TrEMBL record:
Pfam families per UniProt: CbiA
NCBIfam families for the chain: ParA_partition
Protein name: Plasmid segregation oscillating ATPase ParF
Organism in which the protein naturally occurs: Albimonas pacifica
Organism taxonomic ancestry: Bacteria, Pseudomonadati, Pseudomonadota, Alphaproteobacteria, Rhodobacterales
InterPro entries membership: CobQ/CobB/MinD/ParA_Nub-bd_dom, DNA_Partitioning_ATPase, McdA, P-loop_NTPase
Residue stretches making up the CobQ/CobB/MinD/ParA nucleotide binding domain: 6-177
Length: 205
């Protein structure tokens, strides 16, 4: 059975594309290459995938009115679909959330990011799609902080048990069409990315 995981968060720069590609590479390395769907007109996921050359993954890109079709087509092509969404795009987000088995919502440890999770959490609840917040760029000490934790608790957010730190390897790998696990397999970034993929798979199961 195909599982569709949609990365969405209205706040720009939260880490949607970064965490998606880390997950994609981890799944590919584990022998379960995902199908990708790029719904963001910026097409950063498509660029990353093009840079992979022979290791490129199957990918669909689509604009707003074609989103549902692209997601359905990708679901026929692979066991796991990973879809990247733009920040603010209400109609498209609704279509993607509706098609998803799980919505992954990256959130940096700032109150602004935490507040920005509310609309997407509400949309997921309306569409009866499970959603999980992934805390990203969490500092080594102190976690996400009390203000962020309080806001997420208020919205009833489920938080993935795996968090990611601020890791240069994520951004340098991205520029090469790679993931942290591929450019520095022993790094903390690689370990975190693997844990992320495992936690998302477990949550999708
Ligand atoms: N854990 C991290 N450690 C270091 N850099 C990160 C991390 N997560 C994201 N970044 C960096 O933050 C920037 C924004 O990340 P990304 O593009 O993944 O966010 P996004 O949510 O997809 O943004 P947009 O809404 O514009 O599509 C990028 O430069 C990326 O390299
Ligand atoms: Mg993005």
């Amino acid at each position: 059975m195909t599982r569709t995981l949609v990365f969405a968060q209205q706040k720009g720069g939260a880490g949607k594309t970064t965490l998606l590609v880390q997950t994609a590479a981890a799944l590919a390395a584990a022998g379960r290459p995902p199908s990708l769907v790029d719904l963001d007109p910026q097409r950063s996921l498509t660029r990353w995938n093009e840079l992979r050359g022979a290791d490129a993954l199957p990918i669909e890109s689509a604009s707003e009115w074609q989103a549902s079709t692209a997601l359905r087509r990708a679901a026929k092509a692979g066991e796991i679909v990973l879809a990247d969404c733009p920040g603010n795009a209400d109609v498209l987000l609704r279509a993607a959330v509706r098609a998803a088995d799980l919505v992954a919502i990256p959130c940096q440890p700032s109150p602004m990011d935490a507040w920005a999770t509310q609309p997407i959490l509400e949309m997921a609840a309306r569409e009866k799609t499970p959603a999980v917040v992934i805390l990203n760029r969490v500092p080594p000490r102190g976690g996400a902080g009390p203000a962020v934790e309080a806001a997420l608790a208020e919205f009833g957010a489920e938080i993935l048990p795996v968090t990611l730190g601020n890791r240069v390897a994520f951004s340098t790998a991205f520029l090469e069409g790679r993931a942290a696990s591929e450019i520095s397999p022993r790094s903390t970034a690689a370990r975190e990315a693997l844990a992320l993929a495992e936690a998302l798979l477990a949550r999708l199961a």
